[in-house]
Design a protein that fits this description.
Blueprint (H helix, E strand, L loop, with lengths): L14 E5 L5 E5 L25 E3 L3 E6 L14 E2 L31 E16 L11 E19 L12 E10 L8 E5 L6 E6 L8 E8 L8 E6 L3 E11 L12 H9 L4 E4 L29 E2 L5 E2 L5 H11 L2 E6 L3 E6 L4 E3 L6 H15 L5 H8 L10 E4 L7 H18 L4 E4 L10 E8 L1 H6 L13 E9 L8 H16 L4 E4 L5 E3 L10 E3 L4 E3 L1 H11 L4 E2 L2 E5 L2 E2 L7 E6 L2 E12 L5 E5 L9 E3 L3 E4 L2 E4 L6 E5 L7 E12 L3 E9 L2 E8 H4 L1 E8 L2 E10 L8 E8 L2 E6 L2 E7 L7 E7 L6 E7 L5 E8 L5 E11 L18 E5 L5 E6 L3 E9 L2
Parallel strand pairs: 4-48, 5-14, 14-17, 17-20, 20-21, 21-22, 22-23, 23-24, 25-26
Antiparallel strand pairs: 1-2, 3-30, 4-29, 6-7, 7-12, 7-13, 8-11, 8-13, 9-10, 9-12, 15-16, 18-19, 26-27, 28-46, 31-37, 31-39, 32-33, 32-36, 32-38, 34-37, 35-36, 38-43, 39-40, 40-41, 41-42, 43-44, 44-45, 46-47, 47-52, 48-51, 49-50, 49-52
Helix pairs in contact: 3-4, 7-8
């Protein structure tokens, strides 16, 4: 996850492209990933842009499947889950602890989320204390002073949970806390669940009299009422002062684990049938500084001995959901654990000035930390850390097989290529069977698997469903560790689900190289949306899955073992429209000058634009930068990124643009824009991009850019005037530099509207067909299955996820507005017709005849 407050990269609606050598580029994109809730975006048909002409034929699509020629084995670890404590995903979410700020560590000298409780004529106060603490892990405790207990008055502290505390009639809640009495207090404590008005008590228990030493108290509260706005109270009616620390309240947990997980949220993840679980991050692993990085050794053992730490995502985490709980959770789901280790570079660190960065010569501490983590997971009970695991209740090894070295450190490649080899060699020397995952494909040592991340608009994912078809099979395996539609996605809408589902068909089809994939982020608490969208949405009392969640669930539950080749033909024919739009110029961290810009119709009969910049024509609209007409040129003098000046008409097509241009300083080259529709939809010729190393045509759709055609090595010299010509004719693009043809591309139509993948379930013999219809029309489909070993039964199971519009979303009020619907068809067999609903993902399970 790319944090939006990082020093290394900041994404605010644009994308960043990082070249990783060998032709591989990893793209990170995103919309506004700030804290504010994003409203549903207005949607258009994501596949309609290039299909503006009338349909000329309406024959049904034909899907031909040949089981006599089975393809690759589908990776058994293809679909997994990635957990990161972002959006209060852990504390206040999956981690079942119900009390916020249980250890009083959230803020210095602040009682955050704890309030003074009084009843009757009781008087007193609460305050943070740092005196006589219970252990080194706890830096603050809460002191409660009862000054008066008149008229049976009670004084104490109350907690309203994480934006609410929900209790259920008949349910029992486990409470534990540490307490000690000052010399002036000789009383007992009452622990209770009450209504927000402090007039009704739902459950209560009394402790024995406190002592002058810290002591653990445990008890159970069974509520006699349903209330989503209850209060947890600890109080006394004896005068004097007592102290509290690590005050905890747990409901029943998933799989009945001690210190466990919230039932509804954990079950939703389990229902995805993840084959692996990545943990703990994400940028969470790095921390904003070294002090706030994730140290797994501080997250195991009794919760009172876990200090917690400041979370990069803007809040403090208790580390109650720690390394051991991660391994236990993975085991309970039958998922392979995948642990991410820190490489000694914090998110806000700067390796060039050694700010919050471990020097290379001191990296041994982090390497040993990774080796110790593996020993904790896999070591014998006689090993140092295996013994700790056994003491924590799990003598059997967890059999960790995957470890990732760092997170998104390809943004610091000069550092990463020095660090990754040290980790790789140390891990392989001691644990040769561990698969080591890299953040880049050329990290200075053998790469077994590389982690790629994608955050883009729906159409990018559709157009890249074939991305891995042409990947080099002699290179490293691929782990798509983070991906999601983040542009035009609302708070998690159907458009996002369709784009992701289309992309997933391509990953499954290529799972001989794409071995693992996990959507991100997994969770969001509606009260703390730091990243948008997310798969599972919740508050303190309820939860729901977005359409994207249900896509993950459908693909995870319906993955075959062997790929079956399928060919899609037919369908409505459309006459593709010409590429059209205005023109522009720009720069990226570079100072440039442009002159003699002219746009003419292809046949030369009409001049659409001519500007020699003898004066300011007033026709250019600028975005970012510092533009000025100076000495007969259009000058951009700032070093900002994504700087643009555009003009022209969205209806322009079939034209030639010429100009003179030169770079006067900066890191990159020049940007020549054409087919500009708006600020998020355009093409540009990027000359001297990627650190002034390459030339490429890039296409932006809804703010997501991807390369069209091939990239070529190219460097733009400072101070040299270049003659530039761009020809747009129909759907053909030609780019010339000093009359030399650099790029020639015929733009293909957007992919879709149907995407498919088929596999065989070896255990059941089922043929599993997954189909995605991204259009707003019902699509007639004829399915033919050849080469079956057994005849196919006429009865088949169908699961459909469908919405009436692209911007349709689920919500806490309508949690299953868009949810899978199961049905049975009775016309299946080796050949049958099926109508795909508009905006739908469909799974058809064909059964062999008995």
């Amino acid at each position: 996850m790319v944090a939006n407050n990082g020093k290394w990269i900041k994404l605010t609606g644009a994308i960043a492209t990082v070249a990783l050598g060998a032709g591989l580029a990893i793209y990170y994109g995103g919309g506004d990933n700030g804290k504010e809730e994003a409203g549903p975006a207005s949607q258009t048909d994501q596949t309609a842009e290039q299909q503006t002409a009338p349909e000329t034929a309406s024959e049904p699509f034909q899907l031909t499947i040949d089981e006599s020629k089975p393809g690759i084995s589908i990776s058994p670890t293809l679909y997994g889950a990635f957990f990161e404590d972002i959006n209060h995903a852990g504390d206040g979410g999956l981690y079942a602890e119900m009390l916020m700020n249980r250890s009083f560590e959230n803020a210095a000298l602040s009682t955050e989320n704890w309030s003074l409780y009084k009843s009757g004529d009781g008087e007193g106060f609460i305050e943070i204390t740092k005196d006589n603490l219970m252990n080194k892990a706890q830096q603050q405790a809460l002191a409660v002073t009862v000054e008066s207990n008149a008229n049976n008055g009670w004084v104490g502290a109350e907690n309203g949970g994480f934006w609410g505390l929900s209790v259920t009639k008949g349910k029992t809640y486990k409470v534990s806390f540490y307490a000690k009495a000052s010399s002036d207090f000789n009383g007992k404590l009452r622990v209770s669940l009450e209504d927000a008005g402090r007039t009704v008590t739902y459950a209560e228990q009394m402790t024995e009299a406190l002592t002058n030493d810290w002591k653990l108290y445990t008890l159970a509260l069974t509520s006699d009422t349903d209330d989503t706005g209850a209060k947890f109270v600890i109080s006394a009616n004896e005068t004097g002062t007592f102290a509290l620390d690590v005050v905890s309240m747990f409901p029943e947990t998933w799989n009945n684990r001690e210190n466990g997980l919230r039932v509804d949220l954990a079950q939703m993840v389990a229902d995805m049938k993840p084959s692996f679980l990545r943990f703990p991050g994400g940028c969470f692993i790095e921390g904003a500084t070294q002090e706030d990085a994730y140290y797994w050794k501080e997250t195991v053992g009794p919760i009172a001995e876990r200090p917690g730490h400041n979370n990069l995502w803007g809040y403090r985490t208790t580390d109650g959901l720690g390394f051991h709980e991660f391994l236990q959770w993975s085991e309970d789901m039958g998922a392979e654990p995948l642990y991410v280790t820190n490489v000694g570079i914090s998110h806000d660190g700067d390796p060039f000035t050694n700010v919050s960065t471990t020097p290379i010569e001191e990296l041994g501490t982090w390497i040993q930390d990774a080796l110790d983590a593996i020993e904790y997971a896999n070591g014998s009970v006689t090993s140092k850390w295996g013994a700790v695991r056994a003491a924590n209740g799990h003598p059997e090894p967890f059999n960790l097989k995957y470890i990732e070295v760092g997170n998104e450190n390809n943004f610091q490649m000069s550092e990463y290529v020095q660090r990754y080899p040290l980790f790789y060699r140390a891990i392989k020397e001691k644990y040769p069977n561990i698969t080591v995952i890299s953040n880049a494909d050329n990290a200075g040592e053998k790469i077994e698997m590389v982690d790629e991340h994608y955050y883009f608009a729906p159409q990018w994912f559709m157009n890249n469903a074939d991305k891995y078809d042409s990947y080099d099979r002699s290179g490293p395996d691929i782990y798509v560790g983070e991906y999601a539609v983040t542009i035009d996605a609302g708070n998690g809408n159907m458009a996002a689900a369709l784009g992701e589902a289309a992309f997933m068909t391509g990953m499954e089809r290529n799972s001989d190289i794409v071995k693992m994939a996990s959507y991100a982020p997994l969770f969001v608490n509606v009260n703390d949306r730091r990243w948008n969208p997310d798969a599972i949405v919740f508050d303190h009392a309820s939860s729901y899955g977005t359409p994207s969640y249900y896509v993950q669930m459908l693909f995870g539950q319906n993955k075959g073992d062997t790929l079956v080749p399928g060919t899609l033909t037919g369908g409505p024919k459309t006459e593709l429209a010409s590429i059209n739009g205005g023109v522009g110029v720009g720069s990226w961290a570079t100072q440039v000058e442009y002159d003699d810009i002219k746009v003419t119709s292809t046949d030369g009969s009409k001049v659409l634009l001519e500007d020699s910049f003898d004066k300011d024509s007033g026709t250019w609209q600028t975005m970012n930068g510092e533009w000025a007409v100076q000495d007969g040129s259009y000058v951009q003098s700032s070093d900002q990124t994504d700087v643009r000046a555009t003009t022209g008409d969205v209806d322009w097509s079939n034209y030639t643009m010429t100009m003179r241009a030169r770079k006067t300083g900066g890191a990159e080259g020049m940007l020549i824009m054409f087919a500009v529709k708006d600020s998020d939809n355009y093409y540009w010729w990027n000359l001297g991009g990627w650190g002034n190393t390459k030339s490429a045509i890039e296409k932006a759709q809804s703010g997501s850019k991807s390369v069209v055609g091939e990239e070529w090595p190219l460097r733009i010299n400072d101070g040299q005037w270049y003659n530039i010509r761009v020809e747009v004719a129909g759907r053909a693009i030609r780019c010339y530099l000093d009359d030399q043809l650099i790029h020639e591309v015929t733009e293909e139509p957007d992919a879709g509207p149907i995407f498919h993948v088929t596999g065989i379930d070896q255990e059941t013999g089922d043929t599993i067909i997954k189909l995605v219809n991204t259009s707003d029309k019902q699509q007639a489909l004829n399915i033919n299955v050849a080469g079956t070993q057994k005849p196919i039964a006429e009865s088949a199971d169908v699961i459909t996820l469908q919405a009436d519009s692209l911007d349709a979303e689920n919500s806490l009020m309508e949690p299953t507005l868009i949810a899978p619907v199961s049905s049975v068809i009775d016309n299946a067999g080796e050949s049958f017709d099926y109508a795909l609903e508009p905006y739908s993902i469909t799974v058809i399970r064909l059964h062999p005849k008995k």
